[in-house]
Amino acid sequence: MSDDARHAFSGRLDPRALPALIAGILWLAVSEGWGGAVLAILPGVGLIASSGGVMFWPGEPRHARLMALSGVVGVLFALPAFGVDGWRYALMVLILSAVSFVCAGRLALISGTRPAGVPTVPQGWLANAKAALDAALMGYFVLTARIPTRSEMSSFAERAARLEAALTGDRATDGAVEGPERVDAPHDAELLAMHTRHLSGERLSFPSRYRAPSEGADAPRWLAHAANARCQALVFRQRQPEHHWLVGIHGYRMGPDWLNTALFPPRLLMQQLGCNLMLPVLPLHGARKVGWRTGDYYMDGDPLNLLYAQSQALSDLRHLLAWIRDVDADARIGVLGYSLGGLNAALLAAWEPALDFVVAGIPLADPAAIVWPAVPPSYRRGFEAQGVDAERYARLLEGISPLSRAPLVPRARLTIFAGAADCIVPPDQPERLSRHWGVPVHWYTGGHLTFRNEPVVMNSLHDMAGAAGWT
Fold this sequence. Notes:
The protein has 471 residues and is an alpha/beta fold. It has helices at 3-8, 18-30, 33-56, 61-84, 87-110, 125-143, 150-154, 156-169, 219-223, 257-263, 266-273, 305-327, 340-351, 367-374, 377-385, 390-396, 428-437, 455-467; strands at residues 190-196, 199-207, 230-236, 244-249, 276-281, 332-338, 357-361, 414-419, 441-444. The radius of gyration is 23 Å and the shape is globular.
């Protein structure tokens, strides 16, 4: 823990909680009329609750996330407050909400330990603001996550035991995914012309080959999701025949065409790398969603969802690679993934030896270590009473972690970049992958949401493409 953190968590009231406390009191005490009360309730309660949490339970990241999210809400709600409660009041709560937001970023940065090899906590208001953006988004994820139903909670231990028995029988295949040899190409694939954001390409789709372990009680439920049962990807090809293919894998809660093509700009990447581009849609995302939001049920709801979703993602991605090799016998394939996509890129490095390179950006390495702490404490206690604790959950999800298998791609063709101020994927996650791969992490000083503006992103991609002989 940093010196800054030791001071903050030494038992003294943290002064960084005061702006949120004052802002919350002003929101609730000074607003006038029904209009002002409606605007004040969310930011006021959130700011007071989070400031109290920081003061009395220092070091708990949930309070910093709530403060950051409440600060964002406070800034947004202060704008209509100019017309409802007058400009002096609105300006005061706007400024105090913004200060609370930045303070929350600092609290989020110092709330966790930083393993050896990770840069020191970045300093300055800009680093704090970037961290606060991450903390606010993480707070939104946690507050709006679907919690397990009563039946899912009561049967969790039994279902976990069934899956453990199924996976132990053939751990190398994780009960669903083919071995490291190449998978068969999907000869029932459909390829349709599509247009998005003034871009012309093709939409590839075929039935997902994933089959949930038959011993798992959730298998029928999982396979019943019709929208998710069809693997999809966008394909952009050069006018002239090109044998270089870049596969760009999106992050959590992304997946719609407009988001994927913004994250992986086809014209820019195809021009700079002289390649074709494939943009897969991960299970439960984009056109494959089964909830009202993209990504619902991937990392929320039943804690076993992550095992099914991630196993299906790996299976689908490998069949997409098989499709590329089927239509282009001379294909040379590189993979670039961000966040959840970085996890999937790292997994492909452990299952697909014939890749030219893999760039794992801000990657998850141990998804169980992210999901389990986000489960509400009362639910965790309930699961632990059934005999399923963090350690057992990690063992259950071991097969979907790239840390469980040695990479098959040569180390010279592997690279990792990550943010030293990342408060969504903690720095220990890419650091653990770095130790496992035996390659360094290329650190930038920003957070998770602001990585696109960092030079290390394109530098890492160009370096790997150059090392692979791409022109």
